[in-house]
Amino acid sequence: MARILVTGGSGFIGSHLCEELIRRGHDVLCLDNLFSGSRDNIRHLLGNPYFEFVRHDVIHPFFAEVDHIYHLACPASPIHYQYNPIKTIKTNVMGTINMLGLAKRVKARILLTSTSEVYGNPNIHPQEEAYWGNVNPIGLRSCYDEGKRVAETLMMDYHRQNGVDIRIARIFNTYGPRMAINDGRVISNFIVQALRGEDLTVYGDGTQTRSFCYISDMTDGIVRMAEAEGFIGPVNLGNPIESTILEIAERILSITRSRSRIVFSPLPSDDPERRCPNITRAKERLGWQPKIALDVGLSNTIAYFKDKLNRSVTVGREAP
Ligand code: NAD
Ligand code: UDP
Question: pTM for the full model?
Answer without folding.
Answer: 0.97
